[in-house]
Amino acid sequence: MTADDALRAWLDWLARERRASPRTLEAYGHAGRHWTGFLERHRGGPQALADLGGVTAAELRAHLAERRGGDHPLSARSLAQALAAIRGFHRFLERRLDVASPQLALVRGPRPKPTLPRPVTEAQARALMDEPGADVDLEPWEAARDRAVLTLLYGCGLRISEALALTQADAPLAESLRVTGKGGKTRLVPVLPAVRRAVEDARALDPFPAVPDQPLFRAKRGGPLSPRHVQATVQRLRGRLGLPVSTTPHALRHSFATHLLGAGADLRSIQTLLGHAGLSTTQKYTAVDAARLLEVYATAHPRA
Fold first, then answer.
1. Is 28 noted as a catalytic residue in this protein?
2. Does the annotation mark 250 as catalytic?
3. Which is catalytic among the residues 196, 253, 254, 259?
4. Residues 77, 91, 118, 250: which is the catalytic one?
5. What is the per-residue DSSP string for 38-81?
6. Strand runs (DSSP E) across 103-245, as ranges?
7. Residue 304, pLDDT score
8. pTM, two decimal places
9. Can you give the pLDDT at residue 90?
10. What 8-state DSSP symbol labels residue 264?
11. 42 assigned to active site
């Protein structure tokens, strides 16, 4: 078995057993190919499976330094992701193929500066959802469709891919919706009456036949609506409303979580609603809420 064979076996294992998302597989495969390609250049020839067991900490550091420089340098976050992929690959080699690389544990990657979610306010979220109706360049059914998609993102905390994966068979929406998220994991999210009304308004104006296996939201010619359309829609609306560039479709999902937390929801419930694998991912919203409280305090307190 060559190093490339081992890499393909690892990616196949990630897809079949770990049910990794296509984007994860693409990112990890890219990082793995860079790594095996570096070893070939560094060692002067193709690498066999046994050669991967002799990888040194110095070689891994040299590879990370190469990717940090060059014509397309990686950010600290991207470099940390590449290092995580390489470590995952070598853990697979050790556990499944009995090829250990103990020196890799000596390498420490960069610590990316943590970034906080940047949600919109409740008023801004409402303005975003209402604004498609004022767009004279859209057909009424297109405006209703865009409003329904944005209402789903904010009202249910869905990712774009999750909202656009809904089919006609999912409608009319019930009081709860089964959503398939990252890694093929499913979760139940409550559906507010306002969300159901927005989706039903869009369905009532939809000019295409309601075939059960067809997408719930369709493009101008009847094909599935693309994520790029949703991103472009929010970009256009935020410019018209004077909202910051951080206002993206995903910011509506952040707003869903932040506003729930501000209203007294507990972290475990928010974790379940968002479909996060670990609580640590959800905990970042506590920092957002605390920052907003301090901002309100500094603005409103007479001695601030």
1. no
2. yes
3. 253
4. 250
5. HHHHHHTS--BGGGGGG--HHHHHHHHHHHHSSSSPPPHHHHHH
6. 176-180, 186-190
7. 60
8. 0.67
9. 95
10. T
11. no
